[in-house]
Recover the amino acids of this structure.
């Protein structure tokens, strides 16, 4: 197998007061591959995305290694990061309206990253081609952002993100501001573009059901740690970690009508207030006192799968 | 006389909003948000209302709560025409209908203790004296899985799922016959959504309350409701038993 495009090794993100939000994260992402990073509030997924963009809030510190090709993103200064952002790494943000300039027509906004990175020549043709590719009707290319629907705005941002042919595209909750029809369309478009352009696509989401089918691999986070990762189909068919199992078992649907769902007890601990051991220990149905005391290691399960649990079947 | 009185009967609801004037010489446009919506809900039944954003779901909820008047059509709650009631009678009718919103953080006043928030409808709608209020509030908190120690706490001291439980307790406190739930779990963490769905199901059975569930999430609607109505551009385009609607093309 070829070398991964992105290699994250032992990523930790902590706040100045010592609370750790991401506690040792390792994963690799290959060109042409879609990885879904799934977690609920406080899991550390957004901090991971921000660390990759070099956009962590000032109160947060990252350590570990974030290798993009051979370059460690955490060792770069701001000027070097500026040359990478939008060019090698691009972001599709969560809230499309606030990410667009309200005073500029959308075609020009798609050209922006090209100009910023000295690729002004042919920028307009490239922007037109991109807007066509993301499926924005030509009649809307000269529109102002406020004239577009949420889904159309997100298409503009995808075109903008792709303008400089980045190698890594990070989409942080790209559809949470959209209605369900547009959500599905935007995710399908991202997955399709990822394959077509050989992008390494990192889909960050809190919604397992929404992204699972569109990713090659899933990485499930809880309490700043990886609880489980592996190829999407295999992981969904037979989740190994009690957290993933419980999430999938508690999904409602037509077949559960009138039944009590097997809900996970308790709530997500506040960031940085996890048990000493497994972050899921207090809520897990198969845990024992030992689980809360010692952190389970990430154990290889074969076929590219890992899980972090003391109770994995041997 | 029919045997089971209808809990809710909605007939031909229409509501439009005026659009901003675009030209000095043209009349401002208008947007027909509800375009003749009719449906019925039996006592104790559960109806899911499914629709994309902009289909008129939230406007419908406001009209059903008598927070907005329809241009045409009527809403009958237990045989009373809600929008024709005089103020005093409307206040009485409001005890029978309550709503739970998507975002519990926005639905609770951050400066009010749980006891005040949950007890407020009793004070406003029933003028219930304080000691009785506390008893009822506590009963409802226990029904949603909270306890006496939570009475004096404030919303920020709870997690999102617990805040939604508080909002549900507040909606239950007048013992309504109908609860409208507008996306009750979509703002919650994945791992607590099932808890709140179970709670809604349980409370419905326990209090014999009707449920009108507004959601864009088919799975949630199909789990909680026997009947389903699909709202599209202000009209109900399909309605019937959930399985029938889902499998009709």
């Amino acid at each position: 197998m070829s070398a991964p495009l992105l290699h994250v090794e032992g990523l930790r993100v902590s706040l100045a007061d010592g609370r750790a939000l991401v506690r040792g994260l390792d994963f690799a992402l290959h060109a042409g591959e879609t990885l879904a990073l799934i977690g609920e509030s406080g899991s550390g997924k957004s901090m991971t995305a921000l660390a990759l963009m070099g956009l962590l809030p000032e109160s947060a510190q990252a350590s570990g290694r974030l290798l993009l090709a051979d370059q460690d993103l955490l060792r770069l200064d701001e000027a070097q990061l500026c040359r990478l952002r939008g060019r090698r790494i691009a972001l599709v943000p969560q809230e499309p309206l606030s990410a667009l300039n309200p005073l500029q027509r959308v075609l020009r906004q798609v050209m922006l990253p090209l100009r910023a990175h000295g690729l002004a020549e042919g920028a307009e043709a490239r922007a037109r081609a991109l807007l066509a590719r993301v499926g924005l009707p030509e009649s809307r290319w000269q529109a102002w952002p406020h004239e577009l629907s949420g889904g159309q705005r997100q298409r503009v941002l995808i075109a903008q993100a792709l303008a400089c042919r980045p190698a890594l595209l990070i989409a942080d909750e790209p559809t949470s501001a959209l209605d369900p029809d547009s959500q599905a369309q935007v995710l399908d478009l991202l997955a399709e573009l990822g394959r077509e352009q050989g992008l390494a696509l990192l889909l960050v989401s809190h919604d397992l059901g929404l992204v699972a089918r569109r990713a090659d691999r899933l990485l499930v986070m809880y309490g700043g740690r990886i609880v489980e990762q592996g190829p999407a189909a295999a992981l969904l068919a037979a989740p190994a970690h009690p957290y993933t199992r419980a999430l999938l078992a508690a999904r409602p649907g037509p077949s559960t009508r009138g039944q009590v769902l097997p809900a996970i007890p308790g709530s997500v601990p506040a960031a940085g207030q996890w048990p000493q051991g497994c972050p899921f220990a207090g809520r897990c149905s198969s845990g024992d006192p030992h689980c809360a005391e010692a952190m389970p290691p990430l154990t290889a399960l074969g076929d590219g799968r890992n899980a972090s649990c003391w109770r994995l079947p041997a | 006389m029919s045997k089971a009185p209808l809990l809710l009967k909605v007939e031909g609801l229409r509501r439009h909003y005026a659009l901003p004037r675009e030209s000095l010489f043209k009349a401002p446009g208008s947007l027909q948000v509800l375009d003749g919506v009719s449906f019925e809900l039996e006592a104790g039944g559960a109806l899911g209302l499914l629709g994309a954003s902009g289909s008129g779901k939230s406007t419908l909820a406001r009209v059903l709560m008598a927070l907005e008047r329809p241009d045409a059509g009527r809403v009958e709650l237990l045989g009373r025409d809600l929008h024709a009631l005089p103020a005093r009678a409307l206040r009485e009718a409001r005890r029978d209908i309550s709503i739970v919103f998507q975002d519990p953080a926005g639905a609770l006043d951050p400066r009010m203790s749980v006891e005040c928030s949950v007890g407020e409808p009793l004070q406003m709608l029933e003028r219930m004296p304080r000691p009785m209020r506390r008893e009822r509030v506590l009963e409802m908190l226990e029904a949603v899985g909270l306890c006496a120690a939570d009475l004096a706490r404030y919303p920020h001291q709870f997690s999102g799922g617990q805040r939604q439980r508080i909002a549900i307790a507040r909606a239950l406190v007048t013992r309504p016959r109908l609860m409208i739930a507008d996306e009750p779990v979509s703002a919650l963490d994945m791992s607590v959504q099932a808890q709140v769905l179970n709670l809604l199901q349980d409370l419905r059975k326990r209090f014999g309350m009707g449920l009108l569930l507004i959601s864009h999430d088919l799975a949630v609607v199909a789990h909680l409701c026997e009947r389903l109505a699909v709202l599209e551009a202000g009209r109900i385009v399909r309605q019937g038993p959930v399985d029938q609607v889902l499998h009709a093309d």
The longest helix of chain B spans residues 190-207.
